[in-house]
Structures are given as C-alpha cells and as structure tokens.
Amino acid sequence: MNAVILPSRNEPTTIAAVTAAVDAAMDHSRAVIVHADSSDTPQTAEHFTATGTRAAAA
C-alpha cells in the first residue's frame, strides 16, 4: 500500500485539485491520501473529503 500526506493551511480553493492530482499520480486503488491540516478553516477539510478518489470509490 502507498500513502501520501497532504499538509495544508487554509487551502480550500486548491485542495481538491491537489488531491485529484495526487490520486492520479499514485495510480493505485488502495492508496491512502491523508489530509494533515494546520489550523485550517473548515472549508479546506470539506473540499478534501468531497474530492472523489479511487480508494474512496472502492
């Protein structure tokens, strides 16, 4: 299994695109993408969890 940690701080406008790009680059349905926020606004986490990934669809 592969894993990536995405650190962020107040990135609601970019987190979905970054998450999708990482998911495509991982190229594995069992890859884990972890969002590690640093006192983020709630919108960043909401956009992250709303982004579809292969692991979430499996």
Mean pLDDT: 87
The major sheet is characterized as:
2 strands, parallel
Q: How do the strands line up in the largest sheet?
A: 1-2
Q: How many helical stretches?
A: 3
The helix content is 40-55%
Radius of gyration equals: 11 Å
Tell me the number of strands: 2
N-end to C-end Cα span? 14 Å
Secondary structure category: alpha+beta
What pattern of helices and strands is seen along the backbone? Answer: EHEHH
Strand content: 15-25%
Gross morphology is elongated
Indicate the low-confidence ranges by residue numbers: none
What is the strand and helix layout of this fold?
Layout: E1 3-8, H1 15-26, E2 32-37, H2 42-50, H3 54-57
Structure characterization notes:
With 58 residues, the protein is of the alpha+beta class. The chain has three helices and two strands, in the order βαβαα. It has a two-stranded parallel sheet. α1 (15-26) links the parallel β1 (3-8) and β2 (32-37). The relative contact order is 0.32. The mean pLDDT is 87.
